[in-house]
Structure formats: structure tokens, C-alpha cells
Amino acid sequence: MTTPALSLKNLNKSFGPAKIINDVSLDIAPGERHAIIGPNGAGKSTLFNLISGLYTPTSGTVALHGRTISGMPPHEINKLGLSRSFQVSNIFTNMTVRENVRCGVLHSMGQGYAFWKNIGSNKAVQQKTWEVLEHCALTDKANVPAALLPYADQRALEIAITIAGGADVILLDEPTAGMSHSETDRAVDLIRRATEGKTLVIVEHDMGVIFDLADRISVLVYGEIIASAPPSEIRGDPAVREAYLGDEELPEVMA
Ligand SMILES: Nc1ncnc2c1ncn2[C@@H]1O[C@H](COP(=O)(O)OP(=O)(O)OP(=O)(O)O)[C@@H](O)[C@H]1O
């Protein structure tokens, strides 16, 4: 069997007496697009924080391509090929779009955020930066200060920076939050193109996005995975329907 790109084994996280993640085990194959859904407060962000190293598990392990990463700091995990975007935009607003992406590229080349070095002329860096901008349909805005971008483009830039690091496992946290329908369609298109051949783990509230994009969906309820299956199976799963009906209106795509 192929080694999973990401493997969670009996993962638990408690804050004081509150058990937030409860014995989660999940294997995600290389190249898979995996969505994590669940009602508000189910523990989706906490799970992302455990995977990306912001939180240390109370018990259990996270492995990236077979190597245990739980307990490592986020930057070490990033160096091993896992990159994560945040719900809140993480871009440098006083830099241009190109400079933002270049930072991500430099980071991936082990240069860190080496602003003081004359690397603007480094061909490989320039080329990679341009490739990422093209991938994310941002070339025409390359010289625009990030602060002046419309909201949807700022989120696209966030995704560009996340993939610029060259990671092959990408975690996206609610990438279409706050977007209009047309912006969401554009973002889904971008995510599909930008993560081609990579492993994607996405947390998203927009069920249309999830059912459109994901190869497999895991449903997290009160910190437990109650189902993990392709979208067609999730749609008809009685436990999933009940979990959603118990908490909020059944999303249209599942109705
Ligand atoms: N650092 C923390 N300390 C204590 N409790 C926390 C901490 N982080 C998260 N929690 C609690 O864990 C639970 C799950 O939160 P989390 O943000 O992971 O849920 P979520 O599924 O991402 O929710 P949403 O869909 O609303 O973003 C919540 O009850 C939250 O209050």
C-alpha cells in the first residue's frame, strides 16, 4: 500500500477538562483532495492546528509521508512539505503581489525571508514566482500593493503564497469565506488548478465547494469523525444527515 501523504492516528486534544478532538484516525492518500466538514465548534480548526504543528496533541500522532511530525514546530513541518493557509489573511499588505509570492518562493528555497540579500535578480526565484502568479491568475496584478487588492484577490494571493512554498500537502482553512457566488466559483477553479498533483486538505463551510472539489469527505462532529467517504456516499449517510439536522439546516447539496 502507498504511504499516506498524511496519517492521523488516535489523535486526541483536550483543553483542560474539555475534550475537543476525540480519537481521530484518518489516512489521506497522496494527490487526494480531502474535505473536513462539520457543524460550528466541531473541532475543524483545532484539527488543522494539530496537523500544522500549532498545537501539540494530548495523545496520538500525525505523520507526513510516513514521518511523525506531531510535536515538531510549524516551521519544521513546513520545511518537510506541508503548508497551511489561515481563515484570516496572512499576506504582507504593504508589499506588492509579486513580492508576497516571492517571499513564499524564497522561503521554500531555504532562504527564509532574506530581504537583505540581492536575490531579486535570481533567475530561478523570478521564474518560480512568475509561475505561481500565472497559476493563480495574478500576473496582471503583480505590481499592485496587496492592500489594494479586492478581497477575493487577497484570498487568491493567500493561496498563491501557500503553494509558492513548494509544499506537496496543502491545508486550506475556509478559502472561500466571505466570497460572492462568482468569486467562489473563481476560487474553486484556482484551488483546483493550483493544487493539481498535490494533496489538499480543506475545511470549508460552503457545501457546494466541498461537493464540487473533494474526492473524499470526513465529517467531524463533537471532535469525532463520524463518516469518511466519497461525496456521493456522504450525501446519503443517515448519521451525517442527522448530525447536520440536529445542528443547522441541511445544506442544499445534501438535501
Ligand atoms: N485554545 C483553545 N482553548 C480552549 N478551547 C479551545 C481552544 N481552541 C478551540 N477551543 C474550543 O474547541 C472547540 C472547537 O473549536 P474549533 O475552532 O476547532 O471548531 P471549528 O469546527 O473550527 O468551528 P468553526 O466551524 O466555527 O470555525 C470550541 O468549543 C472552541 O471553543
Describe this structure in words.
With 255 residues, the chain is α/β, with parallel strands linked by helices. The chain has helices at residues 44-52, 74-79, 97-108, 123-135, 151-164, 181-194, 207-213, 231-236, 238-247; strands spanning 6-15, 18-28, 33-37, 59-64, 67-68, 82-84, 169-173, 199-203, 216-221, 224-229. A hairpin with a 2-residue loop joins strand 1 (6-15) and strand 2 (18-28). Helix 3 (97-108) crosses helix 4. The radius of gyration is 18 Å and the shape is globular. The two termini are 36 Å apart. The model has no long low-confidence stretch (mean pLDDT 87). The structure holds adenosine-5'-triphosphate. The site of adenosine-5'-triphosphate has 10 residues, from helix 1.
Give the percentage of residues in beta strands: 15-25%
Specify Rg, calculated over alpha carbons.
18 Å
Number of helices: 9
Number of strands: 10
Taking all residues together, what is the mean pLDDT? 87
CATH homologous superfamily classification of the domain at 1-80 and 215-255 = P-loop containing nucleotide triphosphate hydrolases
CATH architecture of the domain at 1-80 and 215-255: 3-Layer(aba) Sandwich
- Attached small molecules: adenosine-5'-triphosphate
Which fold name corresponds to the CATH topology of the domain at 1-80 and 215-255?
A: Rossmann fold
Protein name: ATP-binding cassette domain-containing protein
Keywords: ATP-binding, Nucleotide-binding, Transport
InterPro entries: AAA+_ATPase, ABC_AA/LPS_Transport, ABC_transporter-like_ATP-bd, BCA_ABC_TP_C, P-loop_NTPase
GO molecular function: ATP binding; ATP hydrolysis activity
